[in-house]
Amino acid sequence: MSTTPAELPVEQLRRLRFSAATAAFQVEGARTEDGRGRSIWDDFVDTPGKVLDGSTADPAADSYHRYRSDVALAAGLGLDRYRFSISWVRVQPDSRGAANPAGLDYYSRLVDELLAAGVTPFPTLYHWDLPSSIEARGGWLNRDTAQRFADYVALVADRLGDRVRHWYTVNEPAMTTLEGYAIGALAPGQFLLFDALPTVHHQLLGHGLAQPILRAAGAEAVGLANNHTQVLAATDAAADREAAAAYDLLHNRLFAEPILLGAYPDLTPLGAPELPVRDGDLELISARPDFYAVNFYNPTTIGAPAADSPIPFDLLPTPGVPVTGFGDQWPIMPSTLTTLLTDFSRRYSGALPPLIVSENGASFAEPDDACRVDDTDRIAYLDGHLRAVTAAMADGADVREYTVWSLLDNFEWADGYTQRFGLTHVDFATGERTPKASYDWYRNVIARARA
């Protein structure tokens, strides 16, 4: 596979905006500064055995103190937009009542720095850091959490809405439901299987409540970012195809269709409980977003479950393809991104607003100490997936933006510091930043698109 930006299809590149992303808990550090409260991820990482290397997210990349240098890195790439997230517990430490001025001051400074550098701020309002006090009252299992989220959104919009016009509401509700509440691999670490499904509706309801608040504050573009995967049946056997359809329903359709079609897909064939929908909920959730954002990392191969399995599918390795630092969990198959984007465009047709690829990236083993990393494997991954995006565009998919995860090496949730995704190497002991070869590659891609 070529890794030369000059060979990328320039016609489609010129139609794209380019971005890179981070998330508050993963890069900010300063977990006890400025009155910040506790989130479910503070509780998770402080519980022995939950994080692979026993680390915590402090100082992480220390972006709370080094945000100016991070904005300089974003500007140095020539980014159109920088996707970052706002920590709910930094803004509203007790999850109720007035905002914490010091927390909002930090994000106000970050926004001003981005605007001064010519980079559009594109914040995410919820990237997994639910206040612990809300989780104690049921978390996303509790309908009231959607209203608490709306109240928090109003506080942020009141302070930043004069300068921020582009917003992501909720990030990856699928992962919060499936990995946070269903199987417990991520915070809050609950193992509820199908009993986790109310969290789907309450997260989407939070998104629906947030949209009019943001628009009233002057927003030009509001949408949700979800993790989607192209589902591959392990074989053409009927049992494998049925299992793949069940997984596609739970990972993809269950989260997309309420927003795009105003209805949930039928879950009764899975024996799943009915979702707690009330009158008017779906009208809020399906109010047309300005974009639909897809976080994409890998396809998922699915086979029929064992006879005694509590779930109707089995996740399997994808044969015959390379993998990232996560091993068999993250196969590299860029063509599946083309398929997913074109399938979405055909399945939802006129109901689908413009698409954004809101995260795409890969982790590989790299040194801990500050150094220049020649990360040709990451360049090949990004090159392949950017080509996949342009192929989907050539086939009619209305993709408007491409976002690399991540601008920086960061704290990678339950994997701690064992996985590095950044275009920029971070020495977590010193905070030193060193752009990698992939940083230069992405900068050259953007320059070619603007030439």
From TrEMBL:
Any one Pfam family here would be Glyco_hydro_1
Enzyme class at the top of the EC tree: hydrolase
Q: Which residues form the active site?
A: 359 (nucleophile)
Keywords assigned: Carbohydrate metabolism, Cellulose degradation, Glycosidase, Hydrolase, Polysaccharide degradation
Does the record carry Nucleus as a key word? no
State if Hydrolase is listed as a keyword: yes
Top-rank taxon of the source lineage equals Bacteria
What catalytic activity does the UniProt entry give for this protein?
Hydrolysis of terminal, non-reducing beta-D-glucosyl residues with release of beta-D-glucose
* InterPro entries named in the record: GH, Glyco_hydro_1, Glyco_hydro_1_AS, Glyco_hydro_1_beta-glucosidase
- Give the EC number(s) under which this enzyme is classified: 3.2.1.21
Its family? Belongs to the glycosyl hydrolase 1 family.
NCBIfam families (UniProt xref): BGL
Q: State what protein this is by name.
A: Beta-glucosidase
Q: Which organism is it from?
A: Gordonia caeni
